[in-house]
Every structure is written in C-alpha cells, then in structure tokens.
From TrEMBL, chain A:
PANTHER family: MEMBRANE COMPONENT OF ABC TRANSPORTER YHHJ-RELATED, MULTIDRUG ABC TRANSPORTER PERMEASE YBHS-RELATED. It comes from Flavobacterium franklandianum. It comes from the Bacteria. Coiled coil: none annotated. This is ABC transporter permease. GO terms for molecular function: ABC-type transporter activity. The chain crosses the membrane at residues 20-40, 181-204, 225-248, 254-281, 293-312, 351-370. It is found in: Cell membrane. InterPro entries: ABC-2_transporter_component, ABC2_TM, ABC2_TM_bact-type.
From TrEMBL, chain B:
SUPFAM superfamilies: P-loop containing nucleoside triphosphate hydrolases. It comes from Flavobacterium franklandianum. One of its GO terms (molecular function) is ATP binding. Pfam families: ABC_tran. This is ABC transporter ATP-binding protein. InterPro entries: AAA+_ATPase, ABC_transporter-like_ATP-bd, ABC_transporter-like_CS, P-loop_NTPase. It comes from the Bacteria. The keyword RNA-binding does not apply. PROSITE patterns: ABC_TRANSPORTER_1, ABC_TRANSPORTER_2.
Amino acid sequence: MKTILFIIQKEFRQIFRNKAMLPIIFVLPMIQLLILSNAASFEIKNIKFSYIDNDHSVTSRELISKFQASNYFNVIESFSSKKVADWQMQTGKVDVILEIPNHFERDIIKENGSNLSVSINAIDGAAAGVESVYISQIINSYNQKIQTQLYQYNEASYIRPVNIVTIPSFWYNNTLNYKTFMVPGILVLLVTMLTLFLSSMNIVREKEMGTLEQINVTPIRKYQFIIGKLFPFWVLGLVILTVGLTIAKVVFSVPILGSIGLIYFFTSIYLLVILGIGLIISNNSDTQQQAMFIAWFFSVIFILMSGLFTPIESMPQWAQNLTLLNPILYFVEIIRMVMLKGATFSDISRPFFIIIFYAFALNGIAVWTYKKVN
Amino acid sequence: MSIKVQNISKSYNKIKAVEAISFEVKEGELFGLIGPDGAGKTTIFRILTTLLLANEGTASVAGFDVVKEYKAIRNSVGYMPGKFSLYQDLTVEENLKFFATIFGTTIEENFDLIKDIYIQIEPFKARRAGALSGGMKQKLALCCALIHKPKVLFLDEPTTGVDPVSRKEFWQMLKRLQQKGITILVSTPYMDEAALCDRIALIQKGSILKIDSPENIIKKYDKIIYDIKAKNKHQLILDLKNYPSQYSVFAFGECIHYIDKNSVFNSTDLQNYLLEKKHMEIEISVSNPTIEDVFMDL
C-alpha cells in the first residue's frame, strides 16, 4: 500500500511538473467544449439561395418573399438565366437555385398547378437533404395558402378543404436546443479522449525513457505499479468531468435532471474501461508515437460510431452490431438519459452492467499483457 | 559463486546475440565484460537481471536461479542500465527516495553504503536529475542501484559518455564498494578500464574469447609488438600492410602497432623497406602489450 501511494505521489508530481502538460490537460478540453458545443450544430443555416424568376408576377414574388422571410436562407441574388445561375453554382457562390417558369401565375390559376425547378448543391449530401426539406416545407405552406386563396376566388361557396395540422411536442428537449443534446455528448468525448491518450502514453513513456527497465528489476508487484500509474489519470478524468459539467450548467444551461452522484458513479467505472484500453495500448507499443497512433485509431472509431454525430439506427446492421462494443456509446446514452431525462439507476442498469463487464475484461487483459520480463 | 552462467544462448529472431556463454564470478569479485558495441554484453546483463529469458542454458545470481527465483534476485541485485534511466523530472533526492521506497527500505537505513558517493551529489539534491552533468547522473544512478544494499551489482557500460576524470573517480568508487563485499559485474568497451578489474572476459560477437585476470592475459601474450611512427601515417599503414611478413597492423593512438609473422624480426629490414617507400622520420621500437593488443589479435 505504501508503495502504491508513493508511486501515485510520484506520478502527480511528474504531471504537475510538466509545464506543457497542465494546459493540455485542463485548458484545451474546456476550449474544445466551448467551441465545439457552439459550432457542431446539425441545424443548417445561412443557405446561399438564388432564384430565376421567369414569370415576374405577384405570385412568384410572393413565393420568393417567403424564402427571404425564412432565417435559414440568405437570398443572394436573382439571375437572368439558368445558365448564369449554373455557373454561379459551379463557382460555389450559391447552394440552391429556384427556377420559376414562365406563366407560373397563369398556370396556377388556370390549370390548378405549375412546376418549379429546384437545384441543390449536394456535395454535402446530408446538408442537401436538410435543405431540400426546408425548401419543400416553404413551398408546401405557400401552396396551401394559395390553394385556399384560389378556392375563395373561384367559388365563394366552395367547402374549404380540411387540413390536418400536426403540432409536435418535443419531449426532454422541447425547444429542440441542439446544445442541450450536444454538450453532454461532447463532454463524454473529452473525458474519454483525454484519459485514453494520457494513460496510453504514460507507461510507454517510461519504456522510452528506460525507466521501466529500472523499475522492472525492482521487487515491485505488477498490480502496485499499474494502480499507481493509472490512479492519477482516473482522478484527472473525474476532475475534467467536474469542470465540464460546471461549464455545461453555467455557460450552456443544460438541465441536469437526474442525480449527479449517479453520473459520477458511472463515470468512475467507465474510466476504468478507458484506462484499461490505454494500458493495453501502452503494453503493445514501444514508443509514444506508436501509442498515440493506436489511441487515435480507436478514438476515431469510437467517436464516429458512438451515435453522437450520426444516428446509429441509420447504420448498416453489421455496423450497428459493432457499436455494441463501443464504450462511448453507453456513456453518451447514459449521460444524456440522466441529465436530460432524469433517469434513475434502474433505467440505466443494462448499459451500466455492460460497462462493469468491460471494465473487468479489459483490465484483466491489460494486466495479463503487462510483462516485466521479455 | 556469486554469479554462475552455464551455456547461455539468446537470439532475437534468428540473430544470435549470445551463444553458449559460460562464466563464473566469485563472491566479492570485480568482474569485467570487455567487448565492442554489439558483442552481447547488454543481453547478458538483461538475462542475469531477470529482464530477459534465455533460449538455452541456466544461470544463477547470488544463489538464485534467474528463471525460477527471479523474485529473490530482484530483491538482492542492483542494476544500472547503460542508458541513464532515472526520472529526469524528479529531483536527486526524490529519485533516491523513490527507489528506496519501492525496495521497501529508507535512505537512512543503508546510508553508510552510499555515503561516499552521495556526499558528492548532495549539494545538488534539489536539482532535477535531467539537469545534472553526465558524471553526476552516473553517481546518482549508482546510489539508486545501491540503496537497498544489493549483494550483486550489475553495471552496464557505466562510464560511456563520462569524462576521463569522472571515469577514474567512478572506478575508485567501485573498488571501495568491492571492499564492502559487493560482487560487481561491469561491462565496458574501454580497454584501459579492463586492467582495473580482478578478472575479465573478452567477448566478441556473442562468444567469450578469453577469461583471465588482466595481468595473466597480457603475460600470456607471446607476440612482440612494435611501435612504428612516421610522418605520413596513412601511407605508413598501407605500406606496412604490403610488407611480406606482416601479421597485423593497426593504428594505436599516435603510432602504429605492428606485429611480424616471424619470431626473429629484423627491424632494420623494415626500416629500409619504409625508406624505400620514401617515408621520413621513421621510428621503430618495441612496445608493451596492452589488453587492447590482445583483443585485436583474437
């Protein structure tokens, strides 16, 4: 026990003595949390919108004014011909071209309908999809409006069509504030990445410096060394969580409905999983560079398959099965459930026990692969 | 016997690092492994300090088998690797305290053993190990290797990269430790240090060529070595190599060491040959053989 305490003391001393490391550990994640939470939005705004109005009628101008009124669209300009507009799309100055055909107004009144042509820059497919939805929403609502108007014009006695209007109610995040949704997720990423990187580089650093060889000839026990080395990073992980939760509450006003104690309890076990992965990486690499690349490999896969940026439901089945191995997935799920939904222990018991299982399995492998003798 | 090595072989993926090595070190002996870089010295150290498992053969240190009783060995040996391997970001005192603690002892308990050495670095005890000079680092590493009062001390190239004065001091310290009953196995590529050991093993390409005391090794050397000097040293080596009865020619400090095939050697003949090759200021004299000469001949 005395030995473990002494190693922990030594480890903290080294961390705090490393002047470049302190800001990396504490300041960088906070900057990331502040920047990413404000920037990583799924809302698509400032769409560069342009139009070609071949009709120049009241109806066409009214339709364009709908786009001008929307805060998702920046109406850049109108073009005289499709050719000019296409060229502007090619140079990247516009994202969306709406072409209103000749006799638009006349066709609507006389023939009860007309066609519009919409061209969308689909280099970013996801964005194009969202843009298309926005555009059809605007056109649909406009369509309904003129329908009612036209009926009124033609036959005052005509029965107004019955419209079924749905008013959705968004539970757990009723203003659809994406920050409420993203901040807990990004916080999870930061806690994970930082502890993974630090722990995977830590023992390998001793290997690189040659100090591990000196340690290995001492009678120190495996478990003493490993606990002594990893405990400080476990503490650091919880400190980062604390700072992150504070920022989430104070800066982003993210609700914390569930028990904070439950979040800490889960995180403390989750960190064991991450430290175990870090230790396995450390054991299997010879230099810090190697360790860093392997840690990167895992963190990129973990992050992109965590459901944070792309919904897991839309992944192919094999990828969905693979995500079940991803510890970040469970952490993101749990922290959102506890913070936004006020979930209690019984609600999260399934992912909780999975994480406990991982903690045991990974640390078992880690201790087993750590060898004092070659 | 303090260290016993029998037929130890180790290869790293088909490349043989050491092959069928055997030697013994008596208790309280200062034993040197002398050989060039890549001879397999570090491999032997790593096997004996239980960091590496040999492919074949057995070895014991302080009476404990290196495979079965490795735990006992780790408690009773001190190891100083060739590369400085203490925590550069901890101070001198913290490093020493750290190693004392993980060996389950305290600095005070064995202070008399390291006192002579520690006194020299004590003025810098609050300085970080990384900021020490090469000689100071060696002294600190030696203190850390001694803090648990080991029975056997392994020093892998302790004086590589250390200035001549510190090297000399270092060997004096080793002699004093030896008097305290500690068995010391030391490796070095410097032939002049070999003469300071009780016995040495000359090692090259993973095999031991000779084991004896330095005096005996020199005494048993039967060839006569000539120091030859001339103005144009490079041309001199080339011309000597073309001399019909040459046995070996190599540069040794400021002169050339020359050995003749014939036991009866007439230096005037060689002098005439060199004069013919237009060499100037030729000096030929008999030299005292050193360990290096013996080694070059093996």
